[in-house]
Amino acid sequence: MGYIAVARPWGWPCDGLRLKMSIGNPDGMVLYLHNQIIQGLRDRKRAALARAVTLVENGSEHAGHILEEAYKLRGRGKVIGITGSPGVGKSTLVDSLIGAIRERGHSVGVIAVDPSSPFTGGAILGDRVRVRSRTTDDEVFFRSLASRGYLGGLSRHTGDIITLFDAFGFDYILVETVGAGQSEVDIMRYAHSVLVVMAPGLGDDIQAIKAGILEIGDVFCVNKADHPDADRAVAVLEAMLGLNREWQWKPPVLKTVASQGKGVVELLDKIDEHSEFLKQNGLLEERIARSYIAALEDNIRRDTVDYILAKARADGSLDGALKQLSEGKTYPAAVAKDLIRQHLCLEAKIDE
């Protein structure tokens, strides 16, 4: 029988811990450490949250145990999605919103998704450069995620990480999307309220029509409102929103100068007003259910694709399929259906 010494995990208060267990059963140690992380989430220990996020983001095979418990700990924090084109000042606005939220005595967690290199998969995580306030505040937690090629402006594991933040007990959870232009609409699947940030002089009025941004926004913000064209941008947005006469909630359009903190308090008021509207009209539960559906879709899609490709690589069918494609003997949609039939053992007919 062997003994493993575990010393003060992640700075938690104890004189040192000796765990008796068999060296031949490392899974027991893993389970123990994961239970420590879960207890850390209950106790609102930041190191535990950071470790949990890392395990989930890296796709650890043991992350499921942590997520299972995290779902039981959710506290129904306000999930605010913040999206918009590059250069409109999203990160600076997030920084100002953090200050306004903390002034009201609420805690806030921030998830900022950065674009990844298509070659290395890395990201510079540059949002941290702009979000500078309250870096030593224990009630503020900031986590950058790499999109790693995932479309829709989010990271592959955004939904799961929102769950971890909610389990930790944050009052507000701000999710800033990549800002890649016309692929930002996925944020509406996870957020309770969506803030769309625009800026004058960037052609955002046309971009909004092209990207379907008008349909996903609950609150609109024209940032950099000290620009001469700010009033025109607001007027154009309000005119386009006015074309829809069937709003349950008509999205307001506000002006901010985030770099100076102007208009940010009023913006937070409108976000809170929308949250209250959802509660009063029974719509919050619908949005929460929508986030569950999004999480299911993402997990089924991710696990199914990973499973099929792993099986196809292992038995050589992927190499055979690639060869057929290169020789022009078939086409990708047909190959995909064949791999699904072969490796998922589907008897049901797949529509051609």
What does this 3D model show about the protein?
It is a single chain. With 352 residues, the chain is of the alpha/beta class. It folds into three domains: 3-72, no CATH class; 74-281, 3-Layer(aba) Sandwich (Rossmann fold); 292-344, no CATH class. It has 13 helices and nine strands. The strands form two sheets. It has a seven-stranded parallel sheet, with helices on both faces. Strands 1-2 form a two-stranded antiparallel sheet. Helix 9 (230-241) links the parallel strand 8 (219-222) and strand 9 (253-255). Mean pLDDT is 80; it is low at 1-25 and 149-154.
How are the elements arranged and paired?
Layout: E1 3-6, E2 17-20, H1 26-42, H2 46-57, H3 63-73, E3 78-83, H4 90-103, E4 108-114, H5 127-130, E5 140-146, H6 158-168, E6 172-176, E7 193-198, H7 204-211, H8 213-216, E8 219-222, H9 230-241, E9 253-255, H10 264-280, H11 284-315, H12 317-326, H13 332-344
Parallel strand pairs: 3-6, 3-7, 4-5, 4-6, 7-8, 8-9
Antiparallel strand pairs: 1-2
Provide a short characterization of the protein structure:
47% of the residues lie in helices and 13% in strands.
Structure characteristics:
about 350 residues; alpha/beta; Rossmann fold; 3 domains; 7-stranded parallel β-sheet; two-stranded antiparallel ribbon; 9 strands
CATH topology of the largest domain: Rossmann fold
Beta-sheet strand percentage?
A: 5-15%
Radius of gyration: 23 Å
Strand runs, count: 9
- The average pLDDT score comes to 80
CATH class of the largest domain: Alpha Beta
Order of strands across the widest beta sheet? 5-4-6-3-7-8-9
Q: How does the major sheet shape up?
A: 7 strands, parallel
The geometry reads as globular
Number of helices: 13
